[in-house]
Amino acid sequence: MRYVRLPRLLSEDFVHARADGSYRKLMHTLARTDLLILDDWGLAPLGDRERRDLLELVEERAGRRATLVTSQLPVEHWHEMIGDATFGDAILDRLVHHAQRLTLTGGSLRRLAPTTKSSGTHAD
Questions:
Q1: Could you count the other beta carbons within 10 Å of the beta carbon of residue 119?
Q2: In which order are the strands placed within the sheet that holds 2-5?
Q3: Which residue in 64, 75, 63, 62 sits closest to 102, CA to CA?
Q4: What percent of the chain has pLDDT over 70?
Q5: Collapsing DSSP states into helix, strand and coil, what is residue 81?
Q6: 23 close to 53: Cβ distance less than 8 angstroms
Q7: How far apart are CA 81 and CA 92, in angstroms?
Q8: What is d(CA 93, CA 85) in angstroms, rounded to the nearest whole number?
Q9: How far apart are CA 3 and CA 69, in angstroms?
Q10: How many CB atoms lie within 10 A of CB 32?
């Protein structure tokens, strides 16, 4: 299992891997991971290089490994976020063809968690 924030993977990890020559190794590692969790899908529109990297990644995993995508962006807006009709069709076909979709409702659990201030003492 491997957890990655998609914006960081696309805008930092792949860029650095290209620069230091480890792109194929990183892609191979991600492709072979049994469960890849892509968090924060759709926070910003994708650029051309990001679309190409994402297509390469989902193509390598499609039908072979599990991919879990988390997003606050409704699925019906994913195509628009990808930003190119051809890439959108290719990426989404590979991701959602056999997908199980879970739609969560309600507020954020982060907002429900009580905030505590450290008093510097501990109860034992």
A1: 6
A2: 2-5, 35-39, 66-69
A3: 75
A4: 86
A5: helix
A6: no
A7: 11
A8: 12
A9: 10
A10: 13
Average confidence (pLDDT) over 38-48: 95
Structure tokens at 106: 């309600």
- Where do we find the tokens 């968090």? 39
Q: How far apart are CA 82 and CA 88, in angstroms?
A: 6
Q: Read off the tokens for 43.
A: 């926070």
Taking residues 108-114, what's their average pLDDT? 67
Domains in the chain with CATH codes: 2-104 (3.40.50.300)
**Length reported for the chain:** 124
Q: Cβ(86)–Cβ(52) under 8 Å?
A: no
Query: Token pair of 55, please?
Result: 């297509």
Residues 6+ apart with CB under 8 A from 84: 48, 51
Question: Tell me, what's the pLDDT at 123?
Answer: 45
Name the strand (E) or helix (H) holding 35.
strand 35-39
What is the model's pTM? 0.82
